[in-house]
Every structure is written in C-alpha cells, then in structure tokens.
C-alpha cells in the first residue's frame, strides 16, 4: 500500500501515462507511442526521447494499437513498479501479434538488469535502451527494422542531454520539469538508482537557464529543477560540453564553480513571475546558502522535499544515508529558522532490514517533530544488486512492514490536515493551472507551498496567471477559497 498526494513531482507510482505532442514538421509517416512510469525524472526523459525521435520525423500517438514504435519508460525503484511494467509489456506483445512491423522497446531503469530476460528469454521486446543511450535510438530502431534485436544500456559519465530541447508532452503549458543533473553517487543501501542511472553529473547551467528562459517566453510560469540530489549540483566553468576538463590555466582565469544555490538564483532571476521548484534535496547536503537563497527570492517556492527514510540513527546508518537523527532535526530547525513559512515533505521506508519496534517508533516521533506537509511512504522492497540486498537479510515480515506503514500513513494524514488548516483565513498567491477536476466553474492551482487550492472562476483570470485567493475552508487534501 502506498499513500499518495496529488503532487506529481515525487509520485513514484505514476504509471502508464501515454504522452503525446504536437505534430512534427518533417513527418516520416511513423508513429511513436511512449508510456512512462515512476519518478518525474523518467517523465522528463520521455520528453528527451520524443525530441530525439521528432527530429527523425516521428509523430506521437496516444493509442499504441496505431503505433509503429511502442516504448515503455520503466522504473525499478520497488518490485511492484517492475511487475506493472512486465504486465504492460505482455499487452503490447498482443498488439504486436496483430501488427508484426511494430517495434516494441523498453527504456529507462529496468533496461540494464532485465535486458537479457526481455530480449532473449521472454522475447517480449525488440529493443532495450538505458537512460544514457537515448541519442542512439534512431540507429537502434534502424537495426530492428533490419530484423535484428538492438540493445544499448551503456551508462555514461558525461551525458546530460544538455543540448536537447525536450518536447513538452501532454503539457498544460504552465508547469515544466527541467533536468539539471543525472545519476546519483550516494549509494543509499536500499536504492537501485546508482546502478540503473549511473554516476552523478551536472548539466551546464547556461543550458538550464536558456531552457527555463525559453519556457518562460512560451508562457510557462513554473519550472521544477530535477535531480536525484540537487544539493550536490556542481558545475565547473572549466568543464567542457563533452564532460572533459580544461585546466584553469588553459582558460587563462580561475575556474568558476556554480553550486545549487547559485543555479537557483540564476533561474529565479529570469523573471519574478517564473516560479522555481526543485527536487530532491538531501539532508546531508542541503546548505544554509541554499536556504538563504530560497528565502531571498519570492519566486523560489517555500517547499522542500527532504526524504528522511527513517527517524532512527542505527537504521539510517544501515541505509548508508550518512546523517543521523540529530543531524536531520538540525537541518529542519535551520529550514524553520531561515524560511519560517516553508512546507516540508518527505519519503519514509517502513520495515527496513532489522528495524525493531522501538526504531520504527523513532520514525513516528520524527514525524511529530517535523509535522510534514506531505509524505511518500513505502514498505521496504529489496532490490537485487543493492548494498542492502548483499549485506542484510530482508527479515521484517511483510505484515509487520504493512502495519508500520499503516501507522505512518495514519500519522501523516493527521499532519497533512493540520498543515492545510494553517492556511485558513490567509490570502495565498495561486498559480492557476486549469479547471478543477470536479467542475469547470472552478479553477485549481497551487500556492508556493504546493498546496492545491480550488476557487470559483472569475472573469479576467486565466490559467497561467496568478490570483490572490482567500482560503475559507479545506478538505483533507485541498484548500477552498475565492479570489479577492
Ligand atoms: N524500497 C522501498 N522504498 C524505496 N525507495 C527507494 N528504494 C526503495 C526500496 N528498495 C523510496 C525511498 C526514496 C523514494 C524515491 O523511493 O524513500 O526516497
Ligand atoms: Fe537512491 Fe539515495 Fe541516490 Fe536518492 S540519494 S537516488 S535514495 S541512492
């Protein structure tokens, strides 16, 4: 069981969304269907894939039965994510039975580990491509057209797709994800990401600012800067586009370093009406400099996703999170001190290897301490190849993991409501994102703390504009009010 909030940024369970874009100019007559699973980074990658293939004349379609190329961009963070993808591939195999020319491919995080299974044993797919090999897709599709099976799962130390301007798929024209780095060097013991996405590398800040500026010019009003650990973003001016280094001497000047606080500032300065969000922060790396930068700019949202995973220091050590309970609490204190009105969300894992009842209680008391606005909560799921799988037995029985999850979820529901209620009677600046799901007489949008706000449509206000909304009441997940 997973508890989910309406926020899509960290919602790892997003599944099966078919992504469609505008018709392409140099149409090759072939249609691409691409379905994405997992985190925002995967959805952002699908936009890069669509851009690479649009260059070659592929149009997208929302119906895989009409497609010539069917891609599924996969997630392997937990076992259930993998199961869902496998079931979906079987359905695609059915469609391919009726249309033998169809190319079916697996992209993303499952590619490396399951390539031989998918390609050879189960013969479910024609092409398997890892997250750093998307530039190779046109060649790989050509190879499949010639009757071969094609695979490229090489991970790179340099690839950031910096020069590719992603095609915005299924976009509302208001919010966009912008990838600022790839990979992860942290090696949390439960996590498969360092193996599926490779080493951490940061993207050239100028290409990031140019992409955000372009989005703003096209009418977008919110960008979310994405990375597995945005606080370790670091760009050296002596870094060349190909990832190699040039010495400061070659450059004739000392190398300039851009860190995450600098990058946030560069993006915030594009325009005061461009909201800047970011995800994910790491408790060991989030600096006061970042917090002061958030406090300094009104358009950098007061919202930090700060995964705790566990509230117990021994478990955090086993998880290789490199901070302990006291350190995490100190970082939360710093957030509260420097940005007094800041929403904090988190990720929590229940039933990690050897976790005792008392240690689980430390997670519950951590939740009391922080009073998170949102949380994404999971039972521990052992992933093959991770440090935890190699070192520790997955020894907490499933019913206990589930019971602990239930307690964590119940507590979070309580605090989510408490935090929402704190908005009552306040005037919130809301970026209007569209009509509410329930009625086209209401608009919906979010305040800078990422709370969803619903209010009656008023003449003179359109999606993409900001409105000052007086919050009058709330449900468990939504604020309700009126424009003033
Ligand atoms: N089991 C359960 N949850 C996991 N996560 C990552 N790996 C696992 C795993 N093996 C969760 C963490 C992480 C979020 C993206 O997914 O909480 O922060
Ligand atoms: Fe996984 Fe830890 Fe990296 Fe997050 S920081 S992607 S949990 S290894």
- Number of separate strands: 22
Helicity level: 25-40%
Label the CATH architecture of the largest domain. Answer: Alpha-Beta Horseshoe
Largest sheet: 7 strands, mixed
Work out the count of structural domains: 3
Shape field? globular
Work out the helix count: 14
Q: Outline the low-pLDDT stretches.
A: 1-8, 251-255
CATH homologous superfamily caption of the largest domain:
tm_1862 like domain
Instruction: Tell me what portion of residues adopts beta-strand conformation.
Output: 15-25%
Radius of gyration: 23 Å
Mean pLDDT: 91
List keywords for this structure.
pyruvate-formate lyase- activating enzyme; 14 helices; Rossmann fold; seven-stranded mixed beta sheet; OB fold (Dihydrolipoamide Acetyltransferase, E2P); disordered N terminus; alpha/beta
Reconstruct the topology from this structure:
Elements: E1 17-19, E2 31-36, H1 40-55, E3 59-60, E4 69-74, H2 79-98, E5 103-108, H3 111-121, E6 127-129, H4 137-145, E7 150-152, E8 175-179, E9 181-182, H5 193-197, E10 201-202, H6 205-217, E11 222-226, E12 234-236, H7 248-251, E13 257-259, H8 260-268, E14 275-279, H9 288-296, E15 303-305, H10 313-318, H11 325-338, E16 343-350, H12 357-370, E17 374-379, H13 387-391, H14 398-421, E18 427-435, E19 442-446, E20 452-456, E21 466-474, E22 478-483
Parallel strand pairs: 2-3, 2-4, 4-5, 5-6, 6-7, 8-11, 11-14, 15-16, 16-17, 20-22
Antiparallel strand pairs: 1-2, 9-10, 12-13, 18-19, 18-21, 19-20, 21-22
Helix pairs in contact: 8-9, 12-14
Bound molecules: 5'-deoxyadenosine and iron/sulfur cluster.
């Amino acid at each position: 069981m997973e508890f989910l909030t309406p926020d899509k940024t960290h919602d790892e369970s997003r599944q099966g969304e078919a992504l469609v874009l505008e018709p392409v100019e140099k149409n090759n007559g072939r249609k691409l269907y691409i379905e994405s699973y997992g985190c925002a980074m995967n959805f952002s990658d699908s936009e890069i894939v669509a851009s690479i293939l649009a260059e070659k004349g592929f149009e997208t379609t929302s119906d895989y039965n009409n497609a010539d190329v069917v891609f599924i961009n996969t997630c392997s963070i937990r076992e259930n994510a993998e199961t869902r993808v496998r079931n979906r591939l079987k359905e695609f195999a059915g469609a391919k039975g009726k249309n033998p020319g169809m190319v079916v491919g697996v992209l993303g995080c499952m590619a490396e580990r399951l390539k031989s299974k998918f390609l050879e044993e189960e013969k479910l797919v024609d092409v398997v491509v890892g997250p750093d090999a998307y530039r190779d897709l046109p060649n790989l599709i050509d190879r499949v057209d010639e009757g071969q099976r094609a695979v490229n799962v090489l991970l790179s130390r340099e690839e950031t797709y910096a020069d590719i301007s992603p095609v915005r798929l299924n976009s509302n024209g208001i919010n966009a994800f912008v990838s600022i780095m790839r990979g992860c060097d942290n090696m949390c013991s439960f996590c498969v990401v360092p193996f599926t996405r490779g080493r951490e590398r940061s993207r050239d800040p100028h290409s990031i600012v140019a992409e955000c500026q372009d989005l703003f010019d096209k009418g977008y009003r919110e960008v979310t800067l994405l990375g597995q650990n945005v606080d370790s973003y670091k760009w050296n001016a002596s870094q060349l586009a190909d990832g190699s280094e040039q010495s400061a001497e070659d450059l004739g000047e000392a190398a300039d370093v851009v860190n995450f606080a600098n990058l946030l500032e560069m993006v915030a300065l594009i325009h005061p009406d461009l909201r800047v969000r970011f995800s994910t922060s790491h408790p060991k790396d989030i600096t006061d400099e970042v917090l002061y930068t958030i406090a300094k700019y009104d358009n950098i949202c007061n919202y930090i996703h700060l995964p705790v995973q566990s509230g117990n220091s021994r478990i955090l050590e086993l998880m290789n999170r490199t901070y302990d309970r006291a350190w995490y609490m100190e970082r939360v204190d710093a957030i509260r001190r420097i940005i007094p009105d800041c929403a904090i969300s988190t990720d929590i894992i229940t039933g990690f290897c050897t976790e005792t009842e008392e240690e689980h209680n430390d997670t519950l008391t951590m939740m009391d301490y922080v009073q998170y606005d949102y949380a994404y909560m999971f039972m521990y799921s052992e992933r093959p190849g991770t440090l935890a799988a190699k070192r520790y037995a997955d020894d907490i029985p499933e019913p206990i993991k589930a019971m602990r999850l239930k307690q964590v979820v119940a507590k979070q529901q309580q605090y989510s409501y408490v935090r929402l209620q704190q908005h009552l009677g306040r005037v919130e600046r809301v970026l209007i994102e569209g009509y509410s799901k329930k009625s086209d007489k209401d608009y919906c949008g979010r305040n800078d703390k990422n709370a969803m706000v619903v209010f009656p449509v008023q003449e003179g206000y359109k999606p993409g504009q900001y409105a000052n909304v007086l919050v009058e009441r709330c449900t468990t997940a939504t604020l309700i009010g009126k424009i003033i």
